[in-house]
């Protein structure tokens, strides 16, 4: 059993000036609160936190981490609270301990292969301080090392499987191969006991012969290096049992056929020496060409660096040799942890700082990732700043944008679940729909057919999926409602003119009108009536106008006399002519008056009253003054009115977007738009028809367009 003095001595080895006070206090506190608890091994529980702290000390961690390691189980397994730990040991230690506790509470039981990656990310996301993960890995390592004390076989297997699926890849990703290898080895022994025994027996058979072989090869290498005045450490070791097994499986080999069971490692001082050694080894033994890997020139994502080569050895056998510096060797063993070690008062090596870029590779959305310097200072990072990982009641993992709510979760399950989401339970407790989900939450949605998505939801959902589904639903519902209303309104007004709207509804005539108002089909046009964008009267007027035009073209006269007469018999107060508000009128196409314009009526021959802007050139020149009648706008001017504009602008990229943008910003829409490059220069002429509700808004739009850069003229067309 590890003792506290072993740990303190170890710390002083790599950091002679360390202030051990916090470690000693953590030890005393942990011993007190864990008192009376035992491990399955029968040892006092305290042996476990001590073992975990020892692992961290061998990785040369700072005193805060080691204190946290000693305390890592106190919140979960004793009466100690976060507040108490924080008040005695400070927030940093408490934060780390509570991070470890949170991860321990995650349930992986239903984890399947496809979810392993999400689980790993969830753990990384929950640990906003990387030391949390390192303590968790050390914790798991000691639990694996004492796994034999578990009586229950299936529980043992489950823990081993979880270690293999979740923790071993995490250790590998953080570059901590010393832990990863132990994870794999113990997990393999538990999961495949027979294969393990078999390979173990084979690797230990003829052990003397093998030892001799190792000694011989080491000696050849050492001699060669000494001749060339290179100081090096040379190691020969067996490959691990899982890696041998993997090789047998992958290459479909029997054990006897796996030649490179023993790998050699040469550790030197400098990088140039690594390459020198590689050259010397290739002089001794012939390399296998495609087996040379230069992870010094191109480090792995987890910062692993080394040269690997496979050569034909002294007995014609394949032999793998790794060459690296002492610094690289330490990174290979402790990965990310190598960078916590005390720098012995030295300033941080800029190369080390640069090498922290690899942590960024861990992070898929790294937009808000702090500067590497900042990372070193705080040792705190948010590895997945934009994501949150939560569980379904069945244990599936959903990955949502940070700030997501139960509604986002519901839509991630299924659109129908989202559309009927009435409430939610998070970790079995009812929460409001705008509740923000946290990593590791289990979320259960309560659905009801009496619930409908609404605008309110849009104010708090975070995921694009939820937002678009809610909008689509609301739009669809609105359209259905508006279409019904629009149809009803149109039916009524058409009926007054003895026209059957339902028959006309799907005719080309109606489609043409829809098109004139900027809609694709009559359904959209009628829905626009329901939305209040267009009045039914406008549709009727347009319809009658079109028929008249057609007649004129075809040379037929007045077959719609009756309806022409009807023009004067109804109206909805849009325009007051001669004091009457119920006359059917139409707007002059020449000048397109809009509410707010001073207007005048002109009684046409058999075609009702046309309304013109007072200063319309057509009124001035060709009108018979006897036919002019005073007109003004009534109260019920709703809907929009087309107005024609001409805009001249310098030819500039983006100008068109700015001009059309200033129209739509003002809640008007563009019905027609064409542009022509001016022959005489750089100018471009825009001809457009926009739909506006009134003159006030029209004037605002004109002003806005004028203020667009490079616009030099804006004209409203009145003839
Ligand atoms: Mn533990």
Q: Can you offer a commentary on this structure?
A:
The chain has 719 residues and is an alpha+beta fold. It has 6 domains: 4-200, Hypothetical protein af1432, CATH 1.10.3210.10; 203-339, 2-Layer Sandwich (Beta Polymerase, domain 2), CATH 3.30.460; 386-462, Beta-grasp domain (Ubiquitin-like (UB roll), Roll); 472-567, no CATH class; 575-633, no CATH class; 641-716, Alpha-Beta Plaits, CATH 3.30.70. The protein has 31 helices and 19 strands. The strands form 5 sheets. The chain has a 5-stranded mixed sheet. Strands 11-15-13-14-12 form a 5-stranded mixed sheet. Helix 7 crosses helix 9, helix 9 (130-145) packs antiparallel against helix 10 and helix 11 (177-191) packs across helix 12 (193-204). The longest helix is centred in the last third of the chain and has 33 residues, at 464-496. It is elongated. The model is unreliable at 341-382 and 556-571 (pLDDT under 50). Bound molecules: manganese (II) ion. Residues 48, 72-73, 139 line the site of manganese (II) ion. Manganese (II) ion (MN) binds next to loops.
